[in-house]
C-alpha cells in the first residue's frame, strides 16, 4: 500500500488512523482540507476516528514533512499533501474554496523584484483572496 510506504518513509509507525487520514488527503479531489473536513469525510466513510486524533495526526504529518499547513485568512488551517510541485493559491472569501495556480511570469517577476532589493529569494507564499464574479 502506498500509504504504508509513505508513512514509513516519513519515519512514522503505520497505524489505522494515520493510513485513513493519509488516504483522505490523497483521494479527495479537494486537495486542501481542514481538520474538520478530514474528520467529516472519515465519518461519512464510516471510519471511527475522533477529531482530536485527526488534529494530532495532521500535526505529526506536518512535522514529518508529509503535509503542508496553510493558514489562510478568515478560515481554519488547511492541509495538503506535500508532493513537491510549487504552486500558489487563491481563496474564495465567500465559500473558502481553495484554487491552485502557477504562473511563470509571476514567479520570474518575484525573483527579479527581490534581486532589485539586493536579496535572493528563499521561499514565497502567495495567496490571492477572491470572490466569484457575477456573470
Ligand atoms: Zn495547494
UniProtKB/TrEMBL annotation:
Instruction: State the needed cofactors, names only.
Output: Mn(2+); Fe(2+); Zn(2+)
Q: Name one GO biological process term.
A: negative regulation of siderophore biosynthetic process
The record describes its quaternary structure and partners as: Homodimer.
Its name, as the record gives it, is Ferric uptake regulation protein
Alphabetical keyword list: Cytoplasm, DNA-binding, Iron, Metal-binding, Repressor, Transcription, Transcription regulation, Zinc
- Primary gene name: fur
Does Disulfide bond count among this protein's keywords? Answer: no
Q: Keyword check for Zinc, yes or no.
A: yes
Q: Which organism is it from?
A: Halopseudomonas formosensis
Q: At which positions is Zn(2+) bound? A: 92
Give the family this protein belongs to, as stated in its UniProt record: Belongs to the Fur family.
Amino acid at each position: 500500500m502506498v500509504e504504508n510506504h509513505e508513512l514509513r518513509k516519513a519515519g512514522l509507525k503505520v497505524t489505522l488512523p494515520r493510513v485513513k487520514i493519509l488516504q483522505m488527503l490523497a483521494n479527495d479531489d479537494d486537495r486542501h482540507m481542514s481538520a474538520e473536513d478530514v474528520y467529516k469525510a472519515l465519518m461519512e466513510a464510516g471510519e471511527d476516528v475522533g477529531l482530536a486524533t485527526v488534529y494530532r495526526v495532521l500535526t505529526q504529518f506536518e512535522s514529518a514533512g508529509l503535509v503542508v499547513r496553510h493558514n489562510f485568512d478568515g478560515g481554519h488551517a488547511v492541509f495538503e499533501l506535500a508532493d513537491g510541485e510549487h504552486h500558489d493559491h487563491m481563496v474564495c472569501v465567500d465559500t473558502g474554496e481553495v484554487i491552485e495556480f502557477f504562473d511563470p511570469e509571476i514567479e520570474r517577476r518575484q525573483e527579479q523584484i527581490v534581486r532589485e532589493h539586493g536579496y535572493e529569494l528563499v521561499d514565497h507564499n502567495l495567496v490571492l483572496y477572491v470572490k466569484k464574479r457575477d456573470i
